[in-house]
Design a protein that fits this description.
Serine Threonine Protein Phosphatase 5, Tetratricopeptide repeat; about 130 residues; globular; mainly alpha
Length: about 130
């Protein structure tokens, strides 16, 4: 693996480790630093998604929704978009927008029918 790619992967994994260890604020900072350094990198869509997850974990639902929407528009065909659609639906539900949530779940099932996120939506009874 080229040195630049190793640096990108290392930086991404460091930010992800913080997110997974329950340190969302620190993780958001690292993901934002990562995106400054690797805006078009291999993990850019993932980093954008995880910023949304960290905002969601902080119950900052408006900003989390905006972040998941960013993944949806900027990385429409990326596999991480399936997760972003699921979490956008969950976020809309938290914000009281039940119809908006259903619409996101339907978009998820239509765009990524075989994804793990679509399976979760079905299992949770969010959409058929």
């Amino acid at each position: 693996m080229p040195k630049a790619a190793q640096g990108e992967e290392t930086a991404y994994k460091a930010a992800l480790k913080l997110a997974m260890s329950g340190r969302p604020a620190e993780s958001i900072n690292l993901f934002r630093d990562f995106l400054q350094q690797y805006p078009d990198g291999r993990y850019a869509a993932n980093a954008e998604y995880w910023i949304g997850e960290c905002l969601y974990a902080q119950r900052n639902y408006q900003d989390a929704l905006a972040q998941f929407q960013l993944v949806n528009t900027r990385y429409a065909a990326h596999h991480k978009n399936a997760d972003a659609l699921l979490k956008a639906g969950m976020t809309l539900a938290k914000l009281g927008d039940k119809q908006g949530a259903v619409d996101k779940y339907r978009n998820l099932i239509t765009a990524f029918p075989n994804s793990e996120a679509a399976g979760r939506a079905r299992e949770m009874g969010l959409v058929r």
